[in-house]
UniProtKB/TrEMBL annotation:
Organism (species): Hermanssonia centrifuga
Matching SUPFAM superfamilies: P-loop containing nucleoside triphosphate hydrolases
Domain (NACHT): residue spans on this chain: 297-442
Renumbered residue ranges of the record's region Disordered: 273-294
Record carries keyword Repeat: yes
The name this protein goes by in its record: NACHT domain-containing protein
Keywords from the UniProt entry: Repeat
Amino acid sequence: MVAPESLSAVPAVTAGSLPVTPSIVAGSLSATPPITTGSLSATPAVAAGSLSATTAVALAETAKALESLSAPHLPKIPTMGLSNPVVDTVRSFGELLTPLLEKVKPFCDLMTAISKVHPYAQIVWSILDGVRSAIQNQVARDSNICKLLEKMTSLYAVVNEHKEQIKSLKVPTIKSPIEFLQRVCFMQRMAKSAISKVDARINAYCDAFESLKQSFYEVRQLNTDLVVARVLDVVQRSAIKADLSDMLYSKGSAMDDEDKACLDGTRTGILNTATNWVNSDPPDPPESSESPEPHQNVLLLIGEAGTGKSAIAHSMAQRFKTLGRLGSSYGFVRNTPNRDYKHLFPTIARNMADFDEDIKEALWEKVGHDTALRTTESLKQQFENFLQKPLENLTVSGPILIVIDALDECGNSSDVRKLASIIVTHSRKLPSCVRLFITSRPEKHIVNGFEGVSHIRIERMDAIPDDFTLKDINTFIQSRLMENMQIDGIGIEQCKKLASTSQNLFQWAFVACKEIAEPPIGRTPDEQYRKLVQSGSGVAQDRLLDYLYSEVLGALFPENDTVGMDRFKSVLGVVLALFEPLTLTGIKALHTTLIRPDEVYNAGTILQYLGSLLSGVMDTDVPIRPLHTSFRDFLADLKRSKDFFVDIADAHQRIARASLCVMNAELVFNICKLESSYVFNKEIPDLQKRIEKYIPHHLSYSCRFWARHLDIASPVGINTFLDHRIRELFKKFVDENILFWLEVLSILGGVSPAFSALANAARVLKLVGTRRLSNVISD
């Protein structure tokens, strides 16, 4: 509530005039002379020369930007230089800008034609032309704003008459029209090229002011609380902090890693094709009664593993983020729960809400008062209520891009089919300005679902001319081995040979460069170069990566080294089977429980040599995961990896045992050392710091996922010896630590996962003949 004394601050209004109020120009405030209701247009005229000069400067900056478009990076879009005091009153907008629009139209038509020549010029012009469209829309809106000012003027006259009576009321007040003008500020919205509901808000303001004026006229104890609340509610709608935090969100899924984008000067053809598609206009409606030509608002980029699809996705995301046109980006990672299909649409929706306040407001209006809807895992409901309906009234100048990488990795084949079907069926219902850029391997069920659909465009990596790809890979290899470092024996000819051996697979070139720059112990860079070229010569492309991985691993773990091979499989099993990647510290802590007492190695002993294949092997705070999905696929397939095969099912069983060991060893009462157990988590200001200090990542992981690992391992059978060990570990867990486990789950966000975890454990224990423990858990 606003103090009643503030009502006395309402400036006196003489009949037929408005108080002196600031004028808003591109976000700044400056005092302007009083405005009389009888002559709103009587404000000082703005010299046409100043506007022309400003426009000339803006166009000159644009021309200068267009001249420098040879580089693959997008230029920064020059802002329109119209932020000087052009607009002193609202009504002067239309009077001043209408003649300008008529003069600018021929220039706009010319620029539209010229921009087709260069894709980057087209992007620049789409933004600038959007500004011109925003001006036209605003000119049409001026009459409504003038109507609003008249309502406000009339209200303030009444308020002035009853000023003394108002002082004694404890009600909110409206101090000036500034709050309202800020919401419809012409320059602010033009610069933002915004998504807007301005007309609806102006009408709401007019209705609220009229109702408030009637309430003042009737006096009736000046009971204005409800009407004033209506006005303030309209003003403050955009300032409401819509709490969408209970919607699923995938942290780390954004395509924002510059190191993973295409190297400057490479992949220009496909990037320009995709950029032109994003920037294309929807087809004009037909003049006859024929059905309109569908707009292709989805582009699916298909390519085999290792061809560089993800790098292109990163480049597209970063390119349009620079332009302020990236609504969201999302990269799937196979077998990673928070990077699966269930998180896709909620993550995109929350990113879009951050992208624009009006989208956030529309999303909140749809799901804000329905917890079940905000937390649903139904893909159909997610798409309709998180994207389709909040965006259905979207009006925007220029495109909004959503990038989705590795669709084939969103889950199992059933999950992929389900998600692909939703995208194919419902994406046509999105506004034409929203474009979906999707990458995927050429999985049959994906290609069959997307092919032949009128609003979907398909591009294929194998359609890129081989000589273009070979040139790009050669450029990449030279940048890694010649420009970034000097390596004896590696020159232009060697780089060309490596590019030729890669058979257009960027992933092969990436791993080869890392192996040559940091060869295994006992080999020189030149020796490693020759070994890789030899192993890749004469190999079919679909087996080239397998030969590369076998060569890299064979140099580290020879076939006759059974001890080293067993350790490799043990450690890599933990890395590949985790539902959520852990850092080197966490993997060491889990894997240590699986090592025999007489063994003196740890997981880091194995992982430190795998930097060309895994991330985070030399860092303590970077999660360890395969750098490319093809390496995971290679190790998990016995026919492909042979001696290096990693049994994922057995790894799940081992992680379940390791998790029980960790919990039995590290769970304690009041683990976070809280002063009281009668306080809600949300009321503990330093809870997150306590979690980071007292609950290490490997313990948190064990508490959340032990039962899932046990559940997945059970269908393949648990041998008698390991079954006995798990049974003993689980008995101790139930007898001594189950309450401490529930405490940790509560601190981490809720005990609801405990029910499914215990149900899974009871089922598995019953399956292997441990009926007593199973009954205890069930009870």
